[in-house]
């Protein structure tokens, strides 16, 4: 159908992609531009136009800014899937980053930062360096954010190239927007780094406070959020800071207001003068109230935050409860939050008005809201003793309306009120009993049964009432069964007559023989034994006085509340959870995925017939890629190449951890660690430890076990000079260890701090002390594996060149006789997990030869060749590296890895 | 604290992703779509759902605008207030890049952003440079603006919110005011605005002498115009028979309400409306309660502010020394004006 026939078919029959391809390669600028637009349009609606990559990239070199923007947009989208082709764009990027037009310079750097392809990242460094010092503030502000992007992709690179210092210099920039973006970037980098990077000193503080007055509303938010981490030295400094931030409370942007409130609240903790604090509280009330005139979604965020604020500083809004009264048109999520705050602000002074509101809400239509309103009345009764009676009378009025779910909810809260004020309000029981048959929710039923049991002696027909529930005992939910059991026992103990006696037999029988629920059965057996051995003791146990319950509306733990207040306006304050409970980090740098590897197989010809069929079908390279990806994985059985030159190596397998969710490494779990200080040597203290690498960072995974008789605390650690200058990157944080307990911690480590002279060896000498014992010394071994960096993957050509460029004297070979390779895949998996990256493999007679690359810090490459016969002991390991002294350490580590 | 959005989505009413912009590559459109369609299926009406939802490591925040949803996704502890507010400001897809970089909001001033637009509809003819204001100290104004006639229009707009209980008692009343300015001023002028003291004192958090005025203390001697009163009636009401002493009243069955409109309502006057409906349906005694909508009132009072705020002066100082004309207008409107029924 192709070739000369095509002229018989109108272009529309040709299919969209080839048509676009033609247009993209058109010599007319207009046609080209329209084509790029069509491609972008197709892309945004989700069509796959990745096969046009080369053609689109060819349009990149243009003076037309609009066209350039669109091509860049395309690149960001598809660079992930075409990393090799993306490299074609690098030259234009670098050129654009020096364009006389600042818009283009900024656009180039911004786009390069968005392309998460390792290879491009390397080329980004020089342009970024330039743009950070650009004359134009627009370029500088874009470059500042780009440093954070780069840090996300390759943190080590950012630190090595000194970008952090340049970024810190931008805090003193004369343009406020540049300052704001530098602050945002630094704050984010700090969040993802274990060591201190962005520390706010009193100098930075004063610079930022000055910039605050001049930058855009969003910039103000970045700065305020960063500054709220600052701890003032004393009350005076705190007052000064507050004075400079207070004008932000008047800002029209709600986010600025909330961030200013956060900062003021933080500083208020230090302010001692009650007058100043009172005055500040007064100043914060109107802006907080104004937040409730914002859009409902923002009101929601504001309300969640106000909920926290009133827990710490109830006076701020003590007189503003009316603001939280629900409007008819408020969305339900706003109403629910308002209700919560109304309960918190309810006081003896305003309770009458609040009750009227709750009563109003309890007659609305939204069931969840109505229930919450009824519950709110109960919570107020529990919180305010003097108002309890008024609350109860409102609840009784609501019960009389006879709306089923209102009645049930009311009964549940009345049970709580009875527990809070025992023997005070039983007169209403009769009213409650009228609704008995309408109860169909387990919690309401259980509550009613509890009330009957608790007050059995004052309810004349308590036995009849309970009996009515007994018939359905086996069908009831567990919650109701447990209450029925207890209530019947109470009834029997209070009125040991014939009726209750029979009832108790039925119940005990049902709850022991007829049930599968162990909780119910256990409770029944305990009652049974108590009743049969000592009924008086049973009375003491079952009818014992209960502890008084209290109001739960200030439920947050003070330390959690502190943390949440420090996070005002953020998600943490919306969820009422600390950030670590929901923050997830995903590494997104793109590396080769398996699909593309199979495509490679097709092209290089080292594959089975499937690959060859595609290759010989005569389609273009790009379409063969697309087609090949759909094929099932062909088992690669490459024939032995003629020569041992690795440029013909086919079959690449990406065994990379492209997406690895990473947890915050504060506490460690995992397999047991090797014991380095046995308890017998350490006077009962046992220390186990091992170096480990997680998310590009070296940690000392340590476990402390206290077998001594006394608690141990004040743990500290020190490392002797060693070959790699490894030492602790922060203090050792071990909690006080009670006798018989243990703790496991991850200590972040840093390199090149205190390097011991002489040839490298693996010795790591450690000293640990605590407040109760002498200093303990022990030694550990540094495995080279933890030093291999995540960026150790090499291009095939690069590998070859490096191999050739190194003198033969740098090649070291060792036989590892006891190692067996049973499966190439599994071995490669294991090596990849330690950042040794597979480059290629070939077969030589019955031997498998694997080529891998790795990198140790400071960018020193290690080129590896492993030769083995599958299933037979003995592996020949050859490495070539500029730093041949490392070889013994390498062999030691690899042997351990392959054997283990 | 630090953190930003991973991606921004525009979804249709069924939760399908129309367009999206990825900032950080850690939340995919497929993932977001799966989450949102699930949310819609489960809740039926996502409007009733919290606008901040956590699902499988990702926080989604969304707003609804006509028939589309605007949504951000993030894996970090980002500033929720800032992002939600940003969504509300968001309008134009092409501008997303300028407005948000790597998930951080940048600019939302519509005027400035319009200079970035490079589509056919709006093409800049001058050489393409970043708009000066983008990195100026003043984010909201470009340099070199000129007008023939220099004028300022200042509107003092106040909206009255009131909530009256079914027993006629006012349970909550407040006034939300805004000063809205439209300027046609050349150059980089400085505007000085003076208001009467009482309001200023309150804004600074200091209390004024005497008690603050409550709305019910105020007698409306001014004439309210375009008054519209919406009276809810049961859904099955038929055969309206309406008489009014002023204005016109119509039954609006689509809203289950009777709408009474009065063009001009002078202060101190009282008007009557009498309406009769037939209610044909018979309902069970235990039927779920009906929606209890309040009576709602809309009105405007021109040349008047409820708070008593007044503009004392509005001075325009520009280095070229031109004379500018300030125009000030006051208006009071009904905000959420609700009267609950029994």
Account of the 3D structure:
The complex is a heterodimer of chains A (900) and B (342). With 900 residues, chain A is of the alpha+beta class. Chain A is built from 38 helices and 15 strands. Among the domains of chain A are: 3-228, Alpha Horseshoe (Leucine-rich Repeat Variant); 594-637, no CATH class; 661-786, Immunoglobulin-like, CATH 2.60.40; 793-899, TATA-Binding Protein (2-Layer Sandwich). Chain A is 49% helix and 11% strand. Chain B has 342 residues and is mostly beta strands. Chain B has three domains: 7-135, Beta-Lactamase (2-Layer Sandwich); 151-217 and 303-339, Immunoglobulin-like (Sandwich); 224-278 and 292-302, Mu homology domain, subdomain B (Immunoglobulin-like). In chain B, 13% of the residues lie in helices and 40% in strands. A seven-stranded mixed sheet of chain B has the order 9-8-18-16-11-14-13, with no helix packed on it.
Please compute the radius of gyration of chain B using only Cα atoms: 26 Å
Quantity of strands of chain A, as a count: 15
Give the C-level CATH assignment of the largest domain in chain B: Alpha Beta
General form of chain B = flat
Q: What is Rg of chain A?
A: 36 Å
State the distance separating the first and last CA atoms of chain A.
Answer: 58 Å
Region (Disordered) (chain A): 588-643
Subunit structure (chain A): Adaptor protein complexes are heterotetramers composed of two large adaptins (beta-type subunit and alpha-type or delta-type or epsilon-type or gamma-type subunit), a medium adaptin (mu-type subunit) and a small adaptin (sigma-type subunit).
Keywords (chain A): Cytoplasmic vesicle, Golgi apparatus, Membrane, Protein transport, Transport
GO biological process, one term (chain A): vesicle-mediated transport
What's the short story on this structure?
The complex is a heterodimer of chains A (900) and B (342). With 900 residues, chain A is an alpha+beta fold.
């Amino acid at each position: 159908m192709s070739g000369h026939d095509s002229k018989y078919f109108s272009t529309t029959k040709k299919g969209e992609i080839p048509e676009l391809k033609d247009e993209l390669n058109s010599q007319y600028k207009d046609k080209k531009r329209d084509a790029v637009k069509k491609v972008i349009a197709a892309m945004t609606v989700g069509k796959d136009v990745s096969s046009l990559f080369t053609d689109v990239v060819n349009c990149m070199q243009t003076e037309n800014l609009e066209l350039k923007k669109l091509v860049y947009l395309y690149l960001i989208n598809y660079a992930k899937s075409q990393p090799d082709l993306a490299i074609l764009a690098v030259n234009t990027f670098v050129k654009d980053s020096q364009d006389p037009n600042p818009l283009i310079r900024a656009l180039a750097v911004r786009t390069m930062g968005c392309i998460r392809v390792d290879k491009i990242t390397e080329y980004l460094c020089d342009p970024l360096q330039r743009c950070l010092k650009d004359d134009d503030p627009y370029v500088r502000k874009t470059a500042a954010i780009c440093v954070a992007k780069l840090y996300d992709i390759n943190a080590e690179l950012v630190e090595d190239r000194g970008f952090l210092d340049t970024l810190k210099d931008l805090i003193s920039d004369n343009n406020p927007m540049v300052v704001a973006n530098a602050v945002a970037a630094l704050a984010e980098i700090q969040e993802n780094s274990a060591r201190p990077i962005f520390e706010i000193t009193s100098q930075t503080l004063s610079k930022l406070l000055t910039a605050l007055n001049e930058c855009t509303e969003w910039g103000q938010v970045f700065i305020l959020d960063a500054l709220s981490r600052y701890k003032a030295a004393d009350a005076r400094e705190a007052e000064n800071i507050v004075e400079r931030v207070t004008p932000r409370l008047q800002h029209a942007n709600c986010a600025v207001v909330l961030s200013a409130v956060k900062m003021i609240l933080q500083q208020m903790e230090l302010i001692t003068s009650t007058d100043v604090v009172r005055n500040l509280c007064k100043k914060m009330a109107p802006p907080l109230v104004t937040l409730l005139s914002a859009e409902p979604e923002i009101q929601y965020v504001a309300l969640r935050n106000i909920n926290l604020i009133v827990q710490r500083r109830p006076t701020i809004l003590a007189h503003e409860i009316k603001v939280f009264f629900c409007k008819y048109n408020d969305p339900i999520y706003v109403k629910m939050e308002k209700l919560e705050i109304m309960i918190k602000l309810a006081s003896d002074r305003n309770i009458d008005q609040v009750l009227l509101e709750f009563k109003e809400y309890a007659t609305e239509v939204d069931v969840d809201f109505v229930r919450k309103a009824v519950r709110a009345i109960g919570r107020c009764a529990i919180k305010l003793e003097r108002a309890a009676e008024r609350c109860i009378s409102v609840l009784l009025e609501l019960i009389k309306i006879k709306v089923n779910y209102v009645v049930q909810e009311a009964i549940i809260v009345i049970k709580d009120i009875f527990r809070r004020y025992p023997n005070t309000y039983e007169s209403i029981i009769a009213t409650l009993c009228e609704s008995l048959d309408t109860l169909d929710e387990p919690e309401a039923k259980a509550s009613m049964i509890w009330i009957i049991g608790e007050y059995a002696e004052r309810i004349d027909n308590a036995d009849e009432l309970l009996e009515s529930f007994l018939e359905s005992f086996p069908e009831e939910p567990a919650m109701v069964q447990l209450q029925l059991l207890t209530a019947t026992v109470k009834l029997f103990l209070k009125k040991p007559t014939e009726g209750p006696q029979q009832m108790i037999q039925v119940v005990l029988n049902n709850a022991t023989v007829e049930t599968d629920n162990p909780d119910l059965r256990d409770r029944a057996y305990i009652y049974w034994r108590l009743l049969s051995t000592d009924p008086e003791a049973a009375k003491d146990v079952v009818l014992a006085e209960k502890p008084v319950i209290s109001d739960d509306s200030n439920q947050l733990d003070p330390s959690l509340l502190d943390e949440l207040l420090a996070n005002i306006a953020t998600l943490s304050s919306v969820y009422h959870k600390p950030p670590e409970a929901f923050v997830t980090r995903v590494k997104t740098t793109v590396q080769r995925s398996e699909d593309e590897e199979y495509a490679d197989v097709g092209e290089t010809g080292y594959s089975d017939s499937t690959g060859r069929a595609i290759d010989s079908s005569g389609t273009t390279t790009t379409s063969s890629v697309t087609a090949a990806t759909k094929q099932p994985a062909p088992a690669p059985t490459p024939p032995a190449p003629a020569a041992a030159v690795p440029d013909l190596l086919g079959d690449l397998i990406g065994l990379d951890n492209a997406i690895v969710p990473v947890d915050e490494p504060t506490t460690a779990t995992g397999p047991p660690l090797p014991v380095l200080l046995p308890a017998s040597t350490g006077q009962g203290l046992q220390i186990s430890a091992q170096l480990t690498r997680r998310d590009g960072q070296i940690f000392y995974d340590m476990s402390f076990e206290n077998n001594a008789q006394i608690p141990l605390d004040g743990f500290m650690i020190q490392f002797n000079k060693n070959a790699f200058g490894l030492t602790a990157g922060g203090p050792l944080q071990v909690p006080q260890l009670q006798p018989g307990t243990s703790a496991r911690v991850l200590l972040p480590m840093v390199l090149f701090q205190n390097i011991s002279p002489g040839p490298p060896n693996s010795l790591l000498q450690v000293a640990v002390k605590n407040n109760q014992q002498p200093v303990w010394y022990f030694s550990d071994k540094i495995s080279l594996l933890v030093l291999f960096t995540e960026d150790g993957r090499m291009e095939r050509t690069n590998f070859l060149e490096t191999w050739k460029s190194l003198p033969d004297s740098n090649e070291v070979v060792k036989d590892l006789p006891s190692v067996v390779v049973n499966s190439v895949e599994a071995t490669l998996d294991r090596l990849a997990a330690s950042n040794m990256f597979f480059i290629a493999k070939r077969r030589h007679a019955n031997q498998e030869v694997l080529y891998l690359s790795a990198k140790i810090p400071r960018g020193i490459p290690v080129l590896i060749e492993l030769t083995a016969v599958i299933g037979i002991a003995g592996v020949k390991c050859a490495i070539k590296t500029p730093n041949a002294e490392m070889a013994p350490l390498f062999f030691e580590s690899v042997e351990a890895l392959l054997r283990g | 604290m630090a953190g930003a959005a991973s991606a921004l989505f525009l979804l249709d009413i069924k939760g399908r992703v129309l367009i999206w912009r990825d900032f950080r590559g850690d939340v995919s459109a497929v993932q977001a779509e799966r989450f949102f369609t699930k949310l819609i299926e489960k809740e039926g009406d996502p409007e009733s759902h919290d606008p901040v939802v956590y699902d499988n490591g990702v926080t989604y925040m969304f707003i609804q605008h006509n028939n589309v949803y605007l949504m951000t996704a993030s894996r970090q502890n980002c500033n929720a207030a800032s992002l939600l507010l940003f969504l509300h400001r968001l309008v134009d897809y092409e501008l997303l890049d300028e407005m948000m970089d790597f998930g951080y909001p940048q600019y939302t001033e519509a005027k400035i952003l319009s200079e970035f637009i490079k589509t056919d509809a709006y093409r800049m003819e001058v050489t393409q440079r970043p708009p000066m204001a983008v990195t100026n100290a003043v984010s909201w104004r470009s340099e070199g603006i000129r007008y023939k006639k220099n004028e300022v229009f200042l509107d003092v707009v106040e909206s009255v919110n009131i909530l009256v209980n079914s027993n006629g008692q006012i349970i909550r009343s407040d006034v939300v005011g805004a000063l809205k300015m439209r300027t046609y001023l050349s150059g980089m002028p400085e505007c000085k605005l003076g208001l009467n003291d009482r309001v200023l004192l309150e804004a600074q958090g200091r209390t004024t002498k005497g008690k603050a005025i409550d709305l019910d203390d105020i007698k409306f001697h001014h004439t309210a115009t375009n008054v519209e009163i919406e009276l809810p009636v049961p859904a099955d009401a038929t055969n309206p028979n309406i008489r009014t002493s002023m204005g016109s009243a119509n039954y609006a069955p689509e809203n289950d309400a009777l709408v009474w409109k009065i063009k001009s309502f002078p202060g101190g006057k009282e008007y009557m409306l009498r309406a009769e409906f037939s209610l044909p349906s018979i309902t069970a005694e235990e039927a779920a309660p009906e929606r209890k909508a309040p009576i709602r009132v809309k009105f405007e009072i021109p040349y008047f502010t409820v708070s008593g705020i007044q503009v004392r002066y509005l001075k325009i100082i520009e280095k070229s020394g031109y004379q500018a004309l300030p125009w000030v207008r006051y208006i009071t409107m009904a905000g959420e004006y609700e009267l609950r029924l029994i």
